[in-house]
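User: DUF1349 domain-containing protein, Actinacidiphila rubida:
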Amino acid sequence: MSSPTGHDLSWSDGDWLNPPAGAREDGSHLLVTTRQDTDFWRTTSYGFVHDDGHALLFPFPAGTAVEVSFVADFDEVFDQAGALVRVDPGTWIKAGVELSDGVPQLGAVVTHGTSDWSLAPVPGWAGREVTVRVSRAGDAVTVRARCDGEPWRMIRLAWLDPAAQASAGPFCCSPQRAGLQVRFTRLTAGPADTALHS
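Assistant: Predicted structure for DUF1349 domain-containing protein:
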């Protein structure tokens, strides 16, 4: 997989979807504090719809990629952070790290009307810098992640209408509490990946 080098985006150029309890720049980082009981989910298994998670969104046209890097100490079940791709309230993809079953999990939720969810445990990623990369080409969004400088891991290949007007950027949620703090350390944009496989 080839991921061309991107350019840094300015936090101040994004638009908040559901502004958090707090968001302030700390040097080149963005420190975000969540509100009470926030999440993104639609219907499947749980029967509820939540569309109140926090996301700082930037244009995400076809042929581009966005990388979100962050550090967080997840303390409560379902604490989560990563990258969100959004078209509308019923069409979105979120991917990142979430605390579930007592350990950090690398996962993704893909929503086209209703949500699905996939997870893989990454206990060694706790408290370390994680980068999530979403790359849009043709009718697909390819989602990858890595911890520190380790190799990229493929998380998901998801369908997205090539004509859809989408946005993407960092997100965080705390479905069981308020006050999760996430330090977003970098946000970059650039060309989409040149290949699906290495």
